[in-house]
Amino acid sequence: MNDPTRHPAYSIDRSQLGAVEINPVFARPAEATEFSKFRLPASESLPETAYQVVHDEAMLDGNARLNLATFVGTWMDDYANRLYAESADKNMIDKDEYPKTAEIETRCWMMLADLWHAPDPDNTIGTSTIGSSEACMLGGLALKRRWQHARKAAGKPTDHPNMVMSSAVQVCWEKFCNYWDIEPRYVPISEDHKVLDGANLADYVDENTIGVVAIMGVTYTGMYEPVKQIAAALDEIQERTGLDVKIHVDAASGGMIAPFIQPDLEWDFRIERVASINTSGHKYGLVYPGLGWVVWRSVDDLPEDLIFKVSYLGGDMPTFALNFSRPGAQVLLQYYMFLRLGMDGFRRVQANSHDVAKFLSSQIGAMDDFELWNDGSDIPVFAWRLKDRPNRKWDLYDLSERLRTRGWLVPAYPMPADLTDVTVQRIVVRNGLSHDLADAFLESMRAEVAYLDALPAPMPSQHKQSGFHH
């Protein structure tokens, strides 16, 4: 019999191939007393029993509110939870059956087009996605197809496309280049160039470049890449070579931060070279996972031959997506948040997260052991590293493990290629991390640093590993 757990991608410890025992307190007469972990049970169980088993397994997960590693939203209010339960059965692709949900999806991306200063928000195009990873891939596919059309029209080959990006890009861009046969050209970050900033860009761009990715909120550190500066470098390249290279802005986080707390920062469609922008509704869009958005500057920036006209359940609808059936509930939740908060509400929520991040970074930066890599001035995310100190018996991996014993998830990880000798820790401040919780975290951190400093010998190191979380 084919055993899927033998596939290396599963990486299952064979010793775990046992059973889940049922507590006699809630086991019912004539029911099984255990469930196989990796095989369908032979018979049914009562819903109360199945619920209790799953509930007890899931409660072993960490406390989401204390997870300072993730960008993904972990809290919504009671009205949002009610709306979520009411709309959990809606399939976003079935726009004929759920026309109002489809209309609300359009309202949302048009609001984003306006928020991001599209020249004509009523004459652009966008879509919801399953997170920013899908949104990034759609933006990248549009760039590739436009490049192919231009090359074919000029009678030139289309077999060696490349894309230019920072070495600190999110892994979805590595996947995009791998899955769609595109050469990734990584511009390394360094102590002098902590983000992609346009320096030496001409060394990476050529006639086969489909586009440049600029990140509004690098996942490693939270820093913005200066889109306007990158565009200026591409303008100079065009003047010299004639190459017209467009920008896709990966604003998974910053797309829902910058418009509210840095409104004068030019990074969006105000820059003519920006062709498309994505964001995560489930990050600073304040919605549960998973929801993303992608918007193009105009309808002309999304090639028509990428859009499918699908006849589905009695309706004819256009679709541009990697997924087909997907939840509609998160789209409704996004619309709820737009109506619930408006511009002023989003400004207050994001400003509060920003204030907490600046407070935390200032306190951590003032500690003797730490040096800030950045201070959370961009999105409410910051990173720090250890100062050089002779005879220190611990490192950031040790501190990360000690904080975990108190419930706090704060990852430690090496920086990307060409800076892998630098290890940092990072905090993501999201809605729900209050000043009181920040004080509680600092109390825990100071206590754990004192504990580590008092050690008579170094911590065991054989189990240390990167705790990097996108």
TrEMBL record:
Catalysed reaction equations from the record: L-glutamate + H(+) = 4-aminobutanoate + CO2
Leader peptide range in chain numbering: none
GO molecular function: aromatic-L-amino-acid decarboxylase activity; glutamate decarboxylase activity; pyridoxal phosphate binding
Top-level lineage group: Bacteria
Annotated GO CC locations: cytosol
Any one of the GO BP annotations: L-glutamate catabolic process
Key words of the record: Decarboxylase, Lyase, Pyridoxal phosphate
Keyword Lyase: yes
Matches recorded under Pfam families: Pyridoxal_deC (PF00282)
Entry EC number(s): 4.1.1.15
Cofactor: pyridoxal 5'-phosphate
Modified residues (N6-(pyridoxal phosphate)lysine): K283
Protein name in UniProt: Glutamate decarboxylase
Species, as recorded: Propionibacterium freudenreichii subsp. shermanii (strain ATCC 9614 / DSM 4902 / CIP 103027 / NCIMB 8099 / CIRM-BIA1)
